């Protein structure tokens, strides 16, 4: 079926989608209803009060208050995505000093820091096979930066859950070190908030960046959240000189469309689903345990504490050597079984996610991999 | 909101509820009794709205 020249996308309805980038942003029916209703350009601005974040019809202002509470923070703004939230903080803080980031950070964190004129230092992971970030290495990192530049960094960034291995870092430990050093702490929760409970106050975060389309069941475009602790409003939510209702760092109004409504419509579901996070972790651990019956090794921390699973799969690589479809055999065999989300051509190392799948679906996925691998 | 417009949106929303069931039961859509009931109810609601709109525009 086509929409003009566009292919209809039915992979959520017709397949089990394992793409880690997409599983947490799979929309709820309510989100899609909101998108249908608010799909037109600037539809969110019917009752504009001068800026997006103070709009009360629809009640964006009230929603942002609820989101702040949900994250254990004090204030929040909608952003065009998580990267825009991170960049907003970096740009507001930067005086051309340095930033300490984890070595597993997303590329957009590094690019944001570069754009904000910050010199980037990294806390390395501990290498194969777990690639873990050790929170206490932040203290060592601060001291190294002081030795090299004469000053502690202007900001520290931690990727709470990285997008490569799905490792969950002890953010509270990093927060404590940052607070001890009086270094502002930015927590990137693109793969955590919206999936699991996050309490910024307990963590000691000054700023939390969230991705609506990655982990809050929002779609219809890009949408993020920047939540901050009291005391940072004047710097990070500073308005324009001649535009007193327009925060500079989000260029006044950020996401001016249906994606913000989708985020709002999904929020009641998100608030409930984070309470079931333990069950999501169980599914992920189950799949790993099943797949490791074959010549497959899970990379990243063990046992898993997240749904994003990185696998090293010599068993499939071996089959690809003699299969007529070469490295593409795995993608096509899974597709024939009703499973998508794998990158075509990958057989040695790849990432999958079990987030939001039912137990029946997880068990079926396991059976399919085992069948293809000869288990 | 005019009735036919409201019913048009309502049908679009029922379709989203139906999509949700296909998503939860992918890839084989083997429905349990409860899901079967839900699907039939959704279809019935859409049919009712179609009938009302048909009657309205045929006048």
Automatic annotation (TrEMBL), chain A:
Keywords: Protein biosynthesis, Pyridoxal phosphate, Transferase. The keyword Cell division does not apply. This is O-phospho-L-seryl-tRNA:Cys-tRNA synthase. The lineage of its organism: Archaea, Methanobacteriati, Methanobacteriota, Stenosarchaea group, Candidatus Methanofastidiosia. One of its GO terms (biological process) is translation. Its cofactor is pyridoxal 5'-phosphate. Gene3D superfamilies: Aspartate Aminotransferase, domain 1, Type I PLP-dependent aspartate aminotransferase-like (Major domain). It holds the Pfam family SepSecS. It comes from Candidatus Methanofastidiosum methylothiophilum.
Automatic annotation (TrEMBL), chain B:
It comes from the Archaea. This is Four helix bundle protein.
